[in-house]
Amino acid sequence: MKSGSNKTKLILALCLVYVLWGSTYLGVKIVTEVLPPFFLSIVRFIFAGSIMLAIGFAVEKEMPTRRQWRNAAWIGVLLIGMGNSSVALALKYMPSGLVALFIAALPAWFIGLDWLFFSREKPKPLTLWGLVLGFVGLFCIFDPFYLVHPDTVVRNYPLWPILVLTAGSIAWSFGSLLSPRLDTPRQLTSSGIQMLSGVVCSVMLSAALEHDQWEAFNAMTTRTWTAIAYLVVFGSLVGYTAYSWLVNNAPARLSATYAYVNPVVALILGWIFLGETLNTHAFIGSAIVIAGVVLMTVRKK
């Protein structure tokens, strides 16, 4: 019975992370029409972290030790402070499709870092083939170097954010792998501490790189507030909690498959709600991504 219950939780957590985090691309796109990206992170995670911490104290009824506070804060800096912030910074300078492609390389970092520093388990051939296939599918979807339509656009963005994205991806993957190996508070309390710790990094980055944040805040509309509410409730409170459960209870390479599925979900939602075009190579790429995820997850207990 316990095995069946864990399997149900695993499937539910994966579905939540796949769909909810894929939908946050749409929410972030709406909010960043008004707010700068780092300031958005501050607003989003102050609300989400405070609510999550209050719920954790009320439900779990345990006060973390000083060591647990420190460990949870460290995970929050790696995941939210460094991981999320690197994506926000890259989106400011580079096309979102190219950024999504680099984010999709997360499973490779998960598998590589897990092999080198944690489980020492050598990846199976099916996992490696799934990894390659998923990346090829996303490359086909976003066509970041305009190979399908070479005459459409000339590159007009810097390449240095790739280094920032790489560092952020390593931080996110390392934090995810480290989380189950540290003494942290219980699930909800730990998630709240992680979110609030990540806000500290966002505050510093916003102060250094963004301007007129409060003027933008005063310009927020009902549409913007609705998108922020969605990001707080579904992207952070529900989605981040599901992801935290995954990294503590599921194989690392299985948890990492969300990085392949999220862009596909975002693509479909953009087509439905924003009228964005879905062309033939996007459909083909999506099918290739799904095939890659199947290979990466097959025969996993």
UniProtKB/TrEMBL annotation:
**Entries under Pfam families matching the protein:** EamA (PF00892)
Locate the EamA domain: which residues? 10-142, 160-297
Query: Where is it mainly found?
Result: membrane
Q: Which UniProt keywords apply?
A: Membrane, Transmembrane, Transmembrane helix
SUPFAM superfamilies from the entry? Multidrug resistance efflux transporter EmrE (SSF103481)
The regions listed as transmembrane in this protein's record are: 38-59, 71-91, 97-116, 128-147, 159-179, 191-208, 228-246, 258-274, 280-298
Membrane topology term: Multi-pass membrane protein
Q: Where in the cell is it found?
A: Membrane
Question: Could you say which protein family the record assigns here?
Answer: Belongs to the EamA transporter family.
Q: What is the name of this protein? A: EamA family transporter
**Organism whose genome encodes this protein:** Chitinophaga chungangae
